[in-house]
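Table S2 (text version). Query chain:
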Amino acid sequence: MDSLGDGNHTAVTEFILLGLTHDPVLRVFLFIIILCIYLVTICGNLCTILLIRVSTQLHHPMYFFLSNLAFADMIFSSSVTPNMLVNFLVDKNRISYHGCCIQLDTVAFFGAVECFLLAAMAYDRFVAICNPLLYSTKMSTQVCVQLLIVAYTSGCFNASSFTVSFFSLVFCGHNTVNHFFCDFAPLREVACSEDSVLILLSPFTAGSVLVFTVIVIAVSYIYILITILKMRSTEGRHKAFSTCTSHLTAVALFYGTVMFIYLMPKSSYSTDQNKVISVFYMVVIPMLNPLIYSLRNYEMKGALKRQLGRKKFP
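Corresponding C-alpha cell output:
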C-alpha cells in the first residue's frame, strides 16, 4: 500500500481475498473438487460450441444462442475460478487494485450477457411454439444477431456501471475482502467512504437487467403455457413442453441463486452462506448448463451420436 501525501490515510493498491476457508485439509479437498468442476466446465462448454458448429442440424436460433451461452459460461467461470484455486494454495491471495476492478467488471459483463441470452432463448421458444408459421421470419439470422448485440451491449452498460461505482469507493488502508473474488458488496464493507449517488448506479443497472429479463422470460412462458394447454393432442403437448425443459432448468438454477444473493436482505444470511451460494452460481452452474442441454435435449444427443458415429465409421 502506498501512502497518500495529504493525510494519515493510505491508498490501497491491492486486496487480500480471504477465500472460502482457512482449514488446510478442507482447502486441499476443495481445490481438487473445484479444479475437477472447472475442467469439466471448460471441456463441456467447448464441446457444446464445437458440436453446434459442426452439426448442420443444430444450425437453428436456439443453438446459436446456446453456443454463445456456453462461451459466456466459460469466461464467467474463468474470471473467478483460477484465482480461487490459487487461493487454496497460498497463505494470502493478493489481487491488485485494478485487477480487482477487472474481475468485478468481467463478472458483471458476462452475468448480464447470460441474463439476456436466457431471455432471448425464452423468446425463441415462444415464437417456435406460439407462432410456428412465422418462426423463420421472426427468428431470422438478422434478428438473432441483433438480439446478440443487445445482450453484449447490456453487458457493457452493466460492467461500466460497476466500474463507476468501484472507483467511487475510497479505501483507507483496510484491504482484506471476506470473499473468494472481488464482489461488490464485500468491497463496500472495507471501503471507508463512498459517493452516495454513484454507488447506487451498479445496483440500479444490475437490478434493471434482472427485472427486464425476468419479465421477458415470464411473459414468454405464460404464452407458451397457454398455447400448450390449448393443444388437443397429448403427444403435441409433451413434445412442445419437452423443448422447454432444458431452458427452464437453466433459468431456475441461474436466477434462483442470483436473486437469493442480491435480493435477499443481508440480515437473513451470513457472509459464509453468501460465499457458498456464489460458488454454486459462478462455478457449478457453468458446469451444469452443457450437461442439462445435452442430457435433456434430444436434438443435442442425436447430433452427438451422429458425430461419434462418423468418427467410428468414417
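Notes on Table S2: The beta strands are 2-3, 10-11, 14-17, 93-96, 169-170, 176-177, 193-194. The first helix runs from residue 24 to 54.
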